[in-house]
Amino acid sequence: MIRIEWHKLFAELLGTALLLAVVIGSGIMAERLSDGNIAIALLANTLATVGGLYILIEVFGPVSGAHFNPAVSAVMAWRGQLDKATLLPYIVAQLIGAMLGAWLAHAMFDMAILQFSTKVRTGTGQWIAEAVATAGLLLVILRAPAGRAAPMVAAYIGAAYWFTASTSFANPAAAFGRMFSDSFAGIAPASAPAFMAAQFVGAAIGVGIDQALRPARSTAARVIESGETGTAGHR
Questions:
Q1: pLDDT at 228
Q2: Model's pTM, two decimal places?
Q3: What is the Cα–Cα distance from 97 to 14, expressed in whole angstroms?
């Protein structure tokens, strides 16, 4: 019988909603105040996202792991750090939260709540950028020293806003939520599936790089770890 830990799902839903509210809301504010200067708008959007992401990871990390990202949850389930039966509920909570976050941002800025983005984001360069952004994100998460993940993830995403052609969504839930906002941070629904596919490919690449960076284990060590010797239980 699957035991659903509702407080964790609520943390993922609320955290993802607030993340999307930060990303989309700051994009709306930046666009309104930048007087058409896209570079200034992107810089403001970046700074708000970095700060918001750091705080959200610190607040919700002890509750649910603060994934806010289906690609991250999938990797954690594959590594055994998230119960596989919890993976689908996590992803559903993240997707719902992302949509609610977009609606919340619209409500705060007196915009129509229900809308779809018309901002086309497509092309090989953008897809490669999303794969790179997500691979880097997973690598940072997997290799961050204990207690350092929040600042490292926030700093990486801030940098990736600028060094990737796609401005680093690096998150299928973010791509999903941004479909519902015809604003600075939006993405047209027709563009989102390719972004999501590139993100999952990037996540797999990030895991592969992490594995390649790990020291090779001897055959004896692998046998001991698998419990195949009579002394394995006495280590």
A1: 42
A2: 0.90
A3: 6
CA angle, 53 then 51 then 119, to 5°: 70
Residue 100: C-alpha distances to residues 30, 76, 123, 174 (Å): 21, 24, 28, 11
Residues in the chain: 235
> 77-107 burial string, b = 16+ CB within 10 Å, else e?
beeeebeeebbebbbebbbbbbbbbbbbbbe
CA distance 60 to 53: 10
d(CA 130, CA 85): 27
Q: Which of 139, 122, 118 is nearest to 197 (CA)?
A: 122
Distance from C-alpha of 14 to C-alpha of 116, rounded to nearest angstrom: 22
Q: Are 187 and 195 in contact (CB under 8 A)?
A: yes
Ranges in the chain, pLDDT < 50: 220, 223-235
- 201, 129 Cβ separation under 8 angstroms: no
Taking a C-beta distance cutoff of 8 angstroms, is the pair 180, 102 a contact?
yes
- Distance separating alpha carbons of residues 231 and 187, to the nearest angstrom: 56
Q: How far apart are CA 232 and CA 235, in angstroms?
A: 6
**pLDDT digits 0-9 by tens, 69-78:** 999 999 999 9
HEC assignment per residue over 115-142: CCCCCCCCCHHHHHHHHHHHHHHHHHHH
Crossing angle, helix 192-213 and helix 124-143, to 10 degrees?
Answer: 40
3-state SS class at 13: helix
In this predicted structure, what is the pLDDT of residue 21?
98
For residue 164, the 8-state DSSP code is S
